[in-house]
Amino acid sequence: MSVQGLIDALEQMDQRYEALLEVMLEKKQAIISNEYDGLVRTMSKESKMLKGIEEQEKQILASAQAFLQSKGIKSRLELTITELLRLVFDPEEKRALSEIQNKLSERLDKLKQVNTLNQSLIDQSLSFIDFSLNLMVGGMDEEATYAPPQQQEKRTSARSNFDTRA
Description:
Structural class: mainly alpha
CATH topology: Methane Monooxygenase Hydroxylase, Chain G, domain 1
CATH architecture: Up-down Bundle
Oligomer: single chain
């Protein structure tokens, strides 16, 4: 078996990652727009896509094992694409495998960036909600005015009514 089956599986994974990136961008927009229903919908889509990605990972592992067996390697090790590249001798197949590796790497970097941004936006939203709740409850009234330094040390910090770590 040539490495083409593995390349095809990796290309399908890239397509899944691309679709996941689009959903994550929708999620970002839902967070920014404060659309709770839109956020729930995108999170549901995201969850389904992640399950599909897990299945695709199994397919990639099976393709890699089939390629290794075709080369006479009976190992059950899960080798990286870079390690598999050493076993590919056809220049065209080697180039194609290297290209899909680079493409996947770039796509994963974009996914990480968007995920970090979404997490930051959610953290900011939770902080704003916490601040708003504290304003409504009145827990921050004492801290909003000036007091001499001696009196500030005696005060206990106001406890938050909303746990942002959840």
